[in-house]
Design goal:
The chain is built from 5 helices and no strands. 51% of the residues lie in helices and 0% in strands. The radius of gyration is 18 Å and the shape is elongated.
């Protein structure tokens, strides 16, 4: 019971991160990556230049209609997600810390 509650909390945190990244009206808004261990682990995958895929398990059964609809809404929200732009480092950029290490 406790484990299921923790899983649901992590999935809710992941949904909050996806919602923050998918909301095009709030550019540069805070993305709550630190809310759970799952979102901390997925931070690089969600916010970098990586490609993400989502698999959805849906059911044609009428008694699973609500869950299927929520799953498809979740996947659609993830599809609209645009990761923040990460500035690329230049090769010839001067880095004094790198010189100290070498």
């Amino acid at each position: 019971l406790v484990e299921g509650r923790n899983i649901n909390r992590s999935l809710l945190s992941l949904a909050n991160c996806i919602n923050a990244l998918a909301d095009r009206t709030r550019k540069g808004a805070h993305v709550p990556y630190r809310d759970s261990k799952l979102t901390r682990l997925l931070k690089d995958s969600l916010s970098g230049t990586s490609v993400a895929a989502m698999l959805c398990a849906v059911s044609p059964s009428s008694d699973q209609y609500e869950e299927t609809l929520n799953t498809l809404k979740y996947a659609n929200r993830a599809k609209q997600m645009t990761p923040p732009q990460v500035p690329q480092r230049q090769e010839g950029e001067h880095n004094p810390l790198q010189e100290q290490v070498a």
